Amino acid sequence: MNLEQIIKKKSGTIVDVRTPDEFRCGNVQGSVNVPLQDLQQRLNEVRKLQTPLVLCCASGGRSTIATQFLSSLGIECLDGGSWLNVNYYTSQTT
Questions:
Q1: Are 58 and 83 in contact (CB under 8 A)?
Q2: What pLDDT, on a 0 to 100 scale, did the predictor assign at position 85?
Q3: pLDDT one-digit tens code per residue, 54-71
């Protein structure tokens, strides 16, 4: 499955790696906020989430870093880029 299919079918968890303040200003409904700077300390929590994880942030930079980090630990995840793109896909669910 590709990124769009995973999001539309809700077959994973959307993880927003922006700061809590950024997340509060707007986010994908149902997403989980795990800021990039807290990712390592919250690994136990992240490992319990339904995979694949779809990681998103403001523009795609932090989500790319988070994807590389989690992938290196064997956690199934995809880089969703901007949360606005991920939000668009969620609005297209059938």
A1: yes
A2: 94
A3: 999 999 999 999 999 999
d(CA 81, CA 86) in angstroms, rounded, equals 8
Residue 40, domain extent: 3-91
Can you read off the two tokens belonging to residue 39? 């990712």
Strand order in the sheet with 53-57: 32-33, 13-16, 53-57, 77-82
- CATH number for 62: 3.40.250.10
Domain count along the chain: 1
83 alpha-carbon distance from chain centroid = 8
User: Is the whole model's pTM more than 0.90, yes or no?
Assistant: yes
Higher pLDDT, 2 or 50: 50
* φ, ψ (nearest 5 deg) of residue 70: -65, -40
